[in-house]
Every structure is written in C-alpha cells, then in structure tokens.
C-alpha cells in the first residue's frame, strides 16, 4: 500500500511539537502505563509511539529494544489516520503490511492494536499500542482497557506540558525578579555615585566661594579706602579712578561667585525658600537703594510706580535678590540718562512685579535662551548668564514664573508673579 502523508499533517506536527516531548528522557509515569498495557492485554510488546515527520519515536516501550523506526513502516502512521482503535489481527494476511520489514523481520509483528493519542483540539499525535508475534483478536474488554490507558497517556502529556509551562513561567518570573533586583542595585549605585559627586561639587563650590570671598572682601575694602582717601590723598586723580574700577570689578566678581553657588544649590535641590508675609513694596525699595549707586554713575533714574502693592507670602531674600538682579541688568543695558521703572499689578489671583528699562532690547531669537544657566543674548559680554537663571529658579520656587518681553530698540520688561492665593492670615 502506498505511503501517503495527509495534507493537514503540518498542523498535527505543530501540535506535537507544542509538547516538547520528542527525544526526551524516559519517564516513569509513561513506563507505568506501558507495563499495565502489556500486563492487562497479555501482549509481549507495548509502546507509547509518537509520529513525527519522518519516524515513529517511542516515548516508552516494553519488550522492544528499538527507540524509533521509519514512519513509512510504522503501523502507527496508519493508526493516527483512522477513527478510534486501529487493529490488525494478522499482519501477514493484510496486504497493507504483509511485505513490511517489521513483519517479515524483527520484531515479527503479527498482531497490532493501537489507540490514538488525541489532543483536545483533535490532533492525533501517536498511539498507545500493543503488539504480539502471534495472530489474535481484540476483545471489547481489551479494547476498552487500551482506550482508557491511551487517555491516561494523553493526560500525562498534558500534565507534563502544564508542568513545563509552570516551570518556564516560574523561571521567567525569577529572571524578571533578578533583573529588577539588578536594575534596582544599579540604580542605587548610580544614585549613590550621583549623590557623592553632588556632595563633592557642593563642597568644592563652598570651599571655592569661601576662598575667593576672603581676598575679594579685602580687595573691595582696600579699594574703597583708597577711593575715599581715608588715610590721605592718592595724589594723581587717576589713582582714584583705578581704585573705583578695582572695587567695582571685585564686587561684580563676588556677585558672580554667589550666583554660581546659589544655582548649584538649586540644581541639587538644597536651596530652600522660607516664606512669610512680606510687603513687596518694601522689598522693592530696599533693592532700589542697593542699585542706586550703579544707576547714579550712569545718570539713570530708577523709579518706583505708585499704586496697589498688596502683601504676599514669599521669601523676602529671594524676592529682593530677583529685583536687585533685574535692576542691575536694566541699569547695565540702558543708555545713560534713561529711566528704569519698577511696578506692581494685581491680576486676578497673582501679583505681577515688573522691571522695565529703555535700553537696546533683546532680539526675539535670543529670548528663548535667556533664563537658562550660562546662556546670554548675542553680543552680550561681562556676565555668565547665571543671574537670570537664578531669578527664574527663585520665582518658580515660590510658585511663580519669570517672563522676559523685549522689543529691539525700545527696551526690555522682565516680570515675575507671586500667587495672591498665598496671602493668608499667619
């Protein structure tokens, strides 16, 4: 009889491979069933046979040394294509098998009975079969026993698959837990390294600030003594100008150092604002007095707009720092003999403080960059860009925001707002 592979054999083979059982080691659960089949049906050979693309392979065997045979000679190849039990009473009298090498030679098959191993979705993977070297028939009782034992084989295969999947899932969960633990450890180490680097950076900045502040304070102090002629005249008037220049440069350098330290603290999350109820007008007046010296030298008039200046809850040091920085910039970039205005306006739930100058203005392309550390407008010299960045941080720390508006040739207005909702009984 011709050896024919069914057209749907690919689906059956995929179902078989799902169990990952081919060429696996012997297992007692299957051996126990083949021993029962051999004993209960009085058969010298019993097999759990699985049919793959080119062979039948025996997961369990009793009375047979071979572990596989070619599929083209396998009785099981025919059994998996039949409905129900497949029985051959005398193979020498069956034209399908009379010339089969397994009949004409070892193991000298005469009688064969195979019950298919059927999956839940109907695929026949192989058989539980019994073989005899003498012709015989299969009683109804023996047929029922063989069918029940084949069902047990299939149950064992399902249990084996479920156990494999459970072990695989457990191993995957363990792998995921190990990966999460590894990532957590790497994150902890990275965090510790970052904290150590940050601590070292802050220590460096603090040490550098201290080391620079001390000589700068001396430079400023001695330059003021010389400029004011405390211990007698300097002689040539140029020396007085030189002393003033030295003092101004030293003060500017000290401001930059303080700004760098404050920016570092903010970036490290260690800059804390301390809020309380304050008068923004009082803070503006204090900042105005501090900036008046620089404004006087350029003949710039700093004015405080009259109007409503309601109290807010804010950090007075931070607000004064913002105002002083904005005033210094306004004076620095305003032409001589022009004006700078500080104003306040209550808008709904916010108080907006503004510093406006009549300077050269800022090109639109530069506005977006301003307020970031170390960023300056094109053509600007004499600064680091830290001042506005610090002002922006200080405003945001108090729940506000800093906005820069400018028109080239007409001046710049920088504003920051504080939520009036913060105003409350102390």
Any overview of this molecule?
The protein is α+β, with helices and mostly antiparallel strands and 426 residues long. The chain has three domains: 130 residues, GAF domain (Beta-Lactamase); 82 residues, Helix Hairpins, CATH 1.10.287; 147 residues, Heat Shock Protein 90 (2-Layer Sandwich). The chain contains ten helices and 13 strands. The strands form three sheets. It has a six-stranded antiparallel sheet with strand order 3-2-1-6-5-4. A five-stranded mixed sheet has the order 8-10-11-13-12. A hairpin with a 5-residue loop joins strand 5 and strand 6. The longest helix has 89 residues.
In brief:
With 426 residues, this protein is of the alpha+beta class.
CATH architecture classification name of the largest domain: 2-Layer Sandwich
**What is the tally of beta strands?**
13
Rg over alpha carbons: 47 Å
The number of helical segments is: 10
**CATH topology tier name of the largest domain:** Heat Shock Protein 90
Could you tell me the mean pLDDT?
A: 84
Residue ranges: pLDDT <50 for 5 or more in a row?
422-426
SSE series? HHEEEHEHEEHHEHEEHEEHHEE
> Main sheet?
6 strands, antiparallel
What proportion of the residues form beta strands (DSSP E)? 15-25%
Count of all domains: 3
Q: Notable features of this structure?
A:
6-stranded antiparallel β-sheet; 13 strands; single chain; 10 helices; 3 domains; Heat Shock Protein 90; Beta-Lactamase; Helix Hairpins; about 425 residues; rod-shaped; alpha+beta; 5-stranded mixed β-sheet
């Amino acid at each position: 009889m011709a050896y024919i592979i069914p057209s749907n054999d690919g689906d059956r083979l995929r179902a078989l491979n799902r169990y990952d059982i081919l060429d696996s080691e012997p297992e007692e659960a299957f051996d126990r069933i083949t021993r029962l089949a051999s004993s209960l049906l009085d058969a010298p050979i019993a097999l759990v046979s699985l049919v793959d693309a080119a062979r039948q392979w025996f997961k369990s065997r009793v009375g047979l040394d071979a572990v596989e045979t070619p599929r083209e000679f396998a009785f099981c190849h025919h059994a998996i294509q039949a409905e129900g039990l497949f029985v051959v009473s005398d193979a020498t009298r069956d034209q399908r098998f009379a010339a089969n090498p397994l009949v004409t030679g070892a193991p000298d098959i005469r009688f064969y009975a195979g019950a298919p191993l059927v999956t839940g979705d109907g695929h026949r993977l192989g058989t539980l079969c019994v073989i005899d070297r003498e012709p015989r028939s299969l009683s109804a009782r023996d047929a029922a026993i063989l069918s029940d034992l084949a069902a047990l084989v299939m149950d064992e295969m399902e249990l084996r698959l479920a156990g494999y999947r459970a072990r695989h899932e457990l191993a995957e969960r363990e792998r995921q837990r190990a990966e999460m633990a590894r990532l957590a450890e790497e994150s902890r180490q990275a965090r510790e390294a970052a904290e150590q680097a940050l601590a070292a950076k802050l220590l460096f900045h603090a040490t550098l600030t201290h080391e620079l502040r001390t000589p700068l304070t001396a430079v400023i102090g001695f330059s003021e003594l010389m400029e004011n002629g405390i211990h007698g005249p300097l002689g040539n008037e140029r020396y007085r100008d030189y002393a003033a220049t030295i003092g101004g440069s030293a003060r500017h350098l000290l401001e930059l150092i303080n700004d760098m330290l404050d920016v570092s603290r903010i970036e490290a999350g260690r800059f804390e604002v301390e809020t309380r109820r304050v008068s923004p007008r009082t803070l503006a007046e204090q900042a105005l007095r501090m900036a008046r010296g620089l404004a006087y030298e350029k003949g710039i008039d700093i004015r405080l707009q009259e109007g409503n200046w309601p109290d807010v809850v804010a950090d007075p040091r931070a607000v004064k720092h913002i105002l002083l920085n904005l005033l210094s910039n306004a004076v620095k970039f305003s032409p001589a003999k022009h004006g700078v205005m500080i104003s306040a306006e209550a808008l709904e739930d916010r108080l907006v403080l503004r510093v406006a100058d009549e300077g050269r203005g800022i090109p639109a392309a530069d506005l977006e960059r301003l307020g970031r550390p170390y960023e300056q407008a094109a053509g600007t010299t004499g600064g680091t860009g830290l001042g506005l960045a610090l002002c922006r941080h200080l405003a945001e720390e108090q729940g506000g925001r800093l906005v820069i508006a400018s028109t080239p040739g007409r001046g710049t207005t920088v504003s920051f707002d504080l939520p009036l909702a913060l105003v409350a009984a102390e």
